[in-house]
């Protein structure tokens, strides 16, 4: 029963993580690191900061749940 619950939570967190990554601002990925974009780098503000924090939290929870699924 616990494995089934962990698997379900893992699927839900994975979907949430994918959605949060897709909602991130365009042009801030690896392409800009290799000269694809010249821009001023500034701190994240407002909804961008909240979205970034939620993405980090979802990734962390997904990692923890995945490790728990392996150990149990």
TrEMBL record:
Keywords: Cell membrane, Membrane, Protein transport, Translocation, Transmembrane, Transmembrane helix, Transport
Superkingdom per UniProt: Bacteria
GO BP: protein secretion
Subcellular location: Cell membrane; Membrane
Record field: transmembrane: 6-23, 50-71
Chief location category: membrane
GO molecular function terms attached to this record: protein-transporting ATPase activity
Pfam families noted in UniProt: SecG
A GO term from the CC aspect: plasma membrane
Topology within the bilayer: Multi-pass membrane protein
InterPro entries assigned: SecG (IPR004692)
Family, per entry: Belongs to the SecG family.
Record function comment: Involved in protein export. Participates in an early event of protein translocation.
Protein name in the entry: Protein-export membrane protein SecG
Source species: Candidatus Daviesbacteria bacterium GW2011_GWA2_40_9
């Amino acid at each position: 029963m616990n494995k089934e619950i962990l698997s379900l939570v893992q699927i839900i967190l994975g979907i949430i993580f994918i959605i949060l990554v897709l909602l991130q601002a365009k042009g801030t990925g690896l392409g800009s690191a290799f000269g694809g974009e010249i821009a001023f780098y500034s701190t994240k503000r407002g909804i961008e900061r909240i979205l970034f924090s939620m993405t980090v939290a979802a990734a962390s929870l997904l990692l923890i749940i995945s490790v728990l699924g392996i150990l149990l």
